[in-house]
User: Fold Altered inheritance of mitochondria protein 11 from Kuraishia capsulata CBS 1993.
Amino acid sequence: MVSGIDFGRLIGKTDSSALSPEVRKYNERRFRQMSLFYGCALATFICSKVAYRGVISRRYLPNFYQHNHVPPSFSFYRDALSAVTHGSLLAVSTFSMIITGSLWYFDISNAREFSFKLRNLLGGEQILEIPNEGKGFKEAMSPIMNALEAKK
Assistant:
């Protein structure tokens, strides 16, 4: 009996049962970020193909017996609506691909992590862990309110 090639082992993938729960959770998180990025990249590709076909379909190609100096009748409204639709599709899909790629690169999965990393990047308080984990709003804001009241 011939055994197959273990491609996972060739590319360095280990058995997931041997990994700790933290590593498994981290891998799932990174896989989710990657799949969001590739989904947005696929949407960008599809939108660019739709826009390309929309541009090509409006081209005027006369037949052998048609005049090429007489433009066919067309609608300015339809052409403008098509251009706005295709431009919006391309802009939104490209922007979503850029955003998800940046979030995947910087390992950010939600808004709380984004604000935490942005605060550290801009020279705010150097915090070692993400605040407000499991706390209510009043408990999280009490040190800030106490500091403001002390300055008065």
Observations:
- The chain has two domains: 13-61+71-109, 110-152.
- Residues 110-152 form one domain.
- The radius of gyration is 27 Å.
- Residues 21-57 form the longest helix (37 residues).
